């Protein structure tokens, strides 16, 4: 009898604790549900196409040829520009990278509606095959030649040889500058024969071999020509020794003087 009373007492005394734990658990569950609902509502609001649209572009970088309008046009080619939360940065970056003048693009989003675009442009070193441009890393790109600022050497060479030809131009142009001249055009044909046209119009036929020796021979000849160098049309250096000199005709000289 005593044991029965004690057990009943324990059941009676534990009943409020059970109720207390049940109330606490219910309250915790309600809190979790409320937090989940708030998170879901917030995320749904942020991903709503009518909320937080990306509407501002901030363009940064030392730029001469790329404008904000160019960036806007590249974005306009995307099928869809999402919200601050939904838009993929990689898609924006790929779009901007397709602008011909862009060498490198870095894009990030700024809360709540801004796209920050930092661009690095190709630095023009040469005009490539008459219809493209070459940058200082030997990369060919399709920038608009008509807007290029300053004078640049014209390179006419087979595809795939851009870095090689750029290095040849850099090496030899520095030597020509020592006599007050610059390379205006540099040509490498399919047979790997080189031709140089200087800024005073003289054409140098160099062939495929011994470029260093043949150019050194030109410098010796050029000094000997003196003032007569202005009358030279071409110099063929494709010989073991010496060179063949072609002269501008009297008629052509007269026409040049008339044009001046």
UniProtKB/TrEMBL annotation:
It comes from the Bacteria. One of its GO terms (cellular component) is plasma membrane. PROSITE patterns: POTRA (PS51779). Its main location: membrane. Keywords: Cell cycle, Cell division, Cell inner membrane, Cell membrane, Membrane, Transmembrane, Transmembrane helix. It is a single-pass type II membrane protein. GO terms for biological process: cell septum assembly; FtsZ-dependent cytokinesis. It is found in: Cell inner membrane; Membrane. Residues 52-122 form the POTRA domain. The chain crosses the membrane at residues 21-47. Pfam families: FtsQ_DivIB_C (PF03799), POTRA_1 (PF08478). Part of a complex composed of FtsB, FtsL and FtsQ. Essential cell division protein. May link together the upstream cell division proteins, which are predominantly cytoplasmic, with the downstream cell division proteins, which are predominantly periplasmic. May control correct divisome assembly. Belongs to the FtsQ/DivIB family. FtsQ subfamily. This is Cell division protein FtsQ. The lineage of its organism: Bacteria, Pseudomonadati, Pseudomonadota, Gammaproteobacteria, Vibrionales.
